[in-house]
Design goal:
Blueprint (H helix, E strand, L loop, with lengths): L16 H8 L2 H9 L3 E4 L1 H17 L4 E6 L6 H9 L3 E4 L2 H9 L7 E3 L6 H10 L2 E4 L2 H14 L4 E7 L13 H14 L3 E8 L6 H20 L6 E3 L11 H10 L26 H9 L9 H8 L2 E4 L10 E12 L4 E5 L20 E3 L7 E9 L8 E11 L6 E4 L22 E5 L7 E4 L5
Parallel strand pairs: 1-16, 2-3, 2-9, 3-4, 4-5, 5-6, 6-7, 7-8, 8-9, 11-13
Antiparallel strand pairs: 1-10, 10-11, 10-15, 12-15, 13-14, 16-17
Helix pairs in contact: 3-4, 3-11, 6-7, 7-8, 9-11, 9-12
């Protein structure tokens, strides 16, 4: 079946043998029956692979570095456990995240505390456990110094968060004037504050601006040392892209998609879509960043870091969660429309967070029919949620499914571990939050599973 006499655009995901094994195992229908609702399955071995690739990239570039997992990207405990086991830290922004990380094996000195206007209780925990704090405001710096003097256990370890010159309207970071004041206060604080360097939060995925700002932070470290401060580390945050699909599929999709391909003629600005393909992604993007020559410098970023004796800290979330999980929904109803169908599933679009940012989660979902011998062909379908809201659509796009969807079939949304599966979830309508299932595929003919310990 076609729309506007042209085939519907698709966005197939990259091959993922681990996920394909789970889909082929017959486990997912059993879990859907057991839970009676949507659920997420997690593939923590992929997290391990992504982390090792990041660490190997730093080693290959001969750059002293340390990786923190940005916990906000996924609430599952298993990823925190894998970070601790893999020699990584965790980036936290709340008391609950801090306690969760400690409780799952991360040492206090391997935590970095980010976010604006931090809770005093969070700052207290950071000082008590020796965590690194990205200071976002002058009053926060004063509070940390006071906490360190009051506790008299250890100094407050800090990075000063810099307002990106290219993004002057960002709500994160210290302006040039505030930064000068902060450095003076660090000197005055003496042993109460250990100023270890600088950090930044930069929107977007372009490598050149990130390299330019990193080089600027290296220069700030050299200047801060003149004032007697340690200044030996910089944090570049996250912002390493991943690829969900191949280049041809992505560019073809962007060129072909139009409002006729969406339920109710919905329109999206292509600039609001996540870049579902990147020429360099994950660890390769980190390698490219280290090889980038910052503006005004003759050497690549890696050489600048080594020459200055500066350790590179990074806080990837999505890049560590590539192919580390997927989301599963059961079709509850099928309704015919003009040339396509609307599928209603047993969950909400709150479990696909991209839908709530004026965008769409574009990778094609995979239909698991109860009857694999059912009619084959092309069956366009959009996917709505089990709520009374017109806007609650998991997929506005008319997906060209290759089997006829029926009530009771499963829809699997691939590669959702990075931000999608829980950053926006809500028990709307008193629906239970989808549980997370940790899949173990080690040396077994059929995967086995357990509930993630964070599940409540």
């Amino acid at each position: 079946m076609a729309v506007n006499s042209r085939p519907l655009p698709t966005l197939p995901v990259l091959d993922d043998p681990a996920a394909e094994q789970v889909l082929a195992s017959g486990l997912l229908p059993e879990l859907a029956y057991a839970f009676g609702g949507p659920f997420h399955f997690l593939l923590p071995d992929a997290f391990d692979t992504n982390l090792r690739a990041m660490q190997d990239t730093l080693a290959a570039a001969e750059v002293d570095g340390f990786v923190y997992f940005a916990k906000k990207a996924n609430k599952a405990a298993v990823f925190v456990e894998r970070a601790a086991a893999g020699g990584a830290g965790v980036d936290v922004a709340s008391v609950a995240e801090f306690r969760e990380a400690l409780g799952h094996g991360v040492r206090g000195e391997h935590l970095v505390v980010t976010g604006p206007a931090k809770d005093p209780a969070l700052l207290h925990l950071a000082v008590q456990h020796g965590a690194l704090v990205a200071v976002d405001a002058l009053d926060e710096l004063d509070a940390l110094a006071t906490a360190a003097l009051t506790g008299r256990v250890r100094p407050a370890r800090i990075l000063l968060r810099v307002l990106p010159p290219a993004q002057p309207h960002s709500r994160f970071g210290l302006s040039q004037t505030e930064l000068a004041t902060a450095l003076d206060r660090c000197v005055q604080a003496g042993d109460a504050v250990r100023m270890e360097g600088f950090s930044f939060h930069l929107s977007g995925y372009a490598l050149q601006p990130r390299a330019d700002l990193a080089a600027h932070l290296v220069d700030l470290c050299l200047k801060a040392r003149v004032q007697g401060l340690e200044a030996s580390r910089i944090s570049i945050g996250g912002g390493l892209p991943i690829s969900y699909s191949d280049a041809d599929s992505w560019h073809t999709f962007l060129a072909e998609q139009n409002s006729g391909h969406y339920h109710a003629g919905k329109t999206f600005h292509t600039g609001d879509f996540y870049p579902y393909h990147s020429p360099v992604a994950g660890a390769a993007a980190l390698a490219a960043l280290l090889a980038t020559r910052p503006e005004g410098h003759e050497q690549p970023l890696a050489a600048l870091l080594k020459e200055a004796g500066v350790t590179l800290l990074l806080e990837p979330g999505r890049a560590l969660l590539h192919q580390a999980g997927a989301s599963v929904f059961r079709i509850r109803g099928v309704k015919d429309r003009d040339g396509y169908q609307i599928l209603t599933v047993d969950g909400t679009s709150l479990s696909l967070s991209e839908q709530w940012f004026n965008s769409e989660y574009l990778p094609d979902p995979i239909l698991l029919p109860q009857d694999p011998a059912g009619p084959a062909g092309t069956f366009p379908a959009s996917v709505g949620a089990a709520t009374c809201l017109e806007s609650d659509m998991l997929t506005w796009r008319k997906i060209p499914l290759h089997s006829q969807p029926r009530t009771g079939d499963l829809l699997v949304y691939p590669n959702t571990a990075g931000y999608q599966m829980d950053s926006n979830e809500s028990p709307f309508h008193d629906l239970a939050l989808p549980p997370k299932v940790v899949i173990d595929q080690t040396d077994r003919p059929r995967p086995r599973w357990r509930l993630d310990r964070h599940f409540t």
